[in-house]
Amino acid sequence: MKTKISLVLIAVLCLSARGFTQVKKEIQWIGGPTYILKLGSFKVLTDPMLGPKSKEAFRIKIHPTTGEPNAAIERFSDPAEFDRSNIDLLLISHMHPDHIDPAAVEILDKNLKTITTAQGVATMQRWGFTNVGALEWSDTLTLQKAGESLKITAVKSMHAQEPLNSELGKGNGYIIEYSSGKSFFRIYWTGDTVWFDEIASYTKYGKIDLLIPNMGAPGNGKRGLDALQALKIITALNPKKIIPVHHTTFSHYAEPISVLQSELSKTKYKKRLQLVPLGVPEKI
């Protein structure tokens, strides 16, 4: 019996020495582009859309699919409840009205450390946020706690092909890298983008453990990812896991998430897709 216990202890010590310690990694989808990401003791909130279910959650200058001007966009379900305490970072991909809304501006702590685009800083400050910074493409921000590090790198996104992309304004995707001792985890969150060839070069950041693509195919894939474009990203970057957001919640999303599920079912990536239910914290 003592020999067996000794062998178990040795095995545990060996696993720990090799960096296989269990670090909490969790995502909670709030709806639309909004989710809570927990990596170790870090807690990140993204693109906060926190207004209730409504026939007119917001208005969009030109509807991406129908072309209707000043179009009202419906929210089909309330945002999930989540714990707003101890958020280390509010991470915003861009400042369109389907990525931050008046409810979020009212609800969120104005001292919350916030990263957005260079164009978004003045807007956030005008709304009363006091701790706002910008990341241009390739810029990095590193947050540190005792023994833990969270590195955020802004990467290029293209909301649409030109010339429409320039009209829509600049947005960010993000490489999110967590490390603690020998534990390491890397995420690529696409933000709102279509496929462009430079995405394939994001392998330079290293192995992608989790891809979080903004789906929904607004404009039928002309103003955001559809399933076939997402498959291009997946093929290029070969992520270990795929958790899509930015689908189902709002009426301007043109493609149901079942299309991505169907496309991936034909490929070697089918078991890597994880569709998280609204509001339920899921291990990643």
TrEMBL record:
Keywords: Hydrolase. It holds the Pfam family Lactamase_B_3. The keyword Hydrolase applies. Signal peptide: none annotated. This is MBL fold metallo-hydrolase. It comes from Flavobacterium psychroterrae. The lineage of its organism: Bacteria, Pseudomonadati, Bacteroidota, Flavobacteriia, Flavobacteriales.
